[in-house]
Design a protein that fits this description.
Strand content: under 5%
Number of helices: 4
Radius of gyration: 20 Å
Distance between the termini: 46 Å
Order of helices and strands: HHHH
Number of domains: 2
Mean pLDDT: 83
Structural class: mainly alpha
Helix content: 55-70%
Shape: elongated
Oligomer: single chain
Length: about 80
């Protein structure tokens, strides 16, 4: 459930925010929300198990392989670290 948040921001940044909002057709509230979500996601990534963090983003630019291939990649990567 959305709630209000009052911010104190430099006047120049407010002008920029309004201009950018019009350019991107996105509300300032939405931009701030997305920014905080990104910070939250980065923070969650920093709290990952190191084994999981090593695999984070590995399939970003390619299709996800089948289970057997995933196991092999995980095993190879785990042995490489040891």
């Amino acid at each position: 459930m959305p709630k209000k948040l009052t911010l104190s921001i430099d006047e120049d940044l407010i002008k920029f925010a309004h201009h950018f909002s019009k350019e991107t057709n996105k509300s300032i509230s939405k931009m701030v929300e997305e920014y905080f979500l990104e910070l939250k996601n980065q923070n969650n990534k920093n709290n990952m198990n190191p084994r999981v963090e090593n695999l984070y983003g590995i399939f970003e630019n390619q299709p996800i392989p089948d289970k057997k291939e995933l196991r092999k990649m995980f095993h190879d990567k785990s042995n490489y670290r040891s």
